[in-house]
Design goal:
Helices cover 33% and strands 16% of the residues. It is of the alpha/beta class. Strands 1-2-3-4 form a four-stranded parallel β-sheet. Helix 2 (63-76) links the parallel strand 2 and strand 3. The longest helix has 18 residues, at 22-39. The protein is globular, with a radius of gyration of 14 Å.
Length: 134
């Protein structure tokens, strides 16, 4: 981000909830969070996560994986999430969010912002913003 914190972006349309191994996804999640933590400034150990929902469809909505991510973050990485940006969430996602938001601790919930892709330069240097995925 613009404050030098490491970040990771996830493009939801690349995920198919019906074609994944939840154990392997858990390992990937932990590996990613560990890499972010290690790349963070030692004095703060905080990172940023972005979820690009620009091409979101229900086939990529994976409640089990989301619940797993929330559990891992809240149980094993408390206070390391600086912010989470949900980018270009379509109206369809609002029904999913109505379920998900109840699983999130209120403190963590305050760190989540729904933004448009055009707003990313407010939070990230232009060169660090991933291009829209195919």
């Amino acid at each position: 981000d613009k404050n030098g914190r490491p970040s990771s972006f996830c493009f939801a349309h690349r995920h198919n909830a019906n074609d994944r191994d939840i154990h392997r996804l858990r390992l990937l999640t932990i590996w990613t969070l560990e890499a972010l933590r290690k790349a963070a400034k030692p004095e703060e150990e905080r990172f940023v996560i972005g979820f690009d929902l620009g091409k979101f469809s229900l086939s990529c909505m994976d409640y089990e994986a989301v619940k797993q991510l929330i559990h891992i973050l809240q149980s094993h990485y408390p206070d390391t999430l600086e912010s989470m940006y949900v980018v270009d969430a379509p109206m369809l996602f609002s029904a999913c969010w109505a379920v998900i938001k109840h699983w999130i601790d209120p403190v963590t919930s305050q760190k989540i912002q729904f933004i448009r892709r055009a707003d990313l330069p407010k939070f990230f240097d232009e060169g660090s913003i991933p291009s829209e995925a195919d």
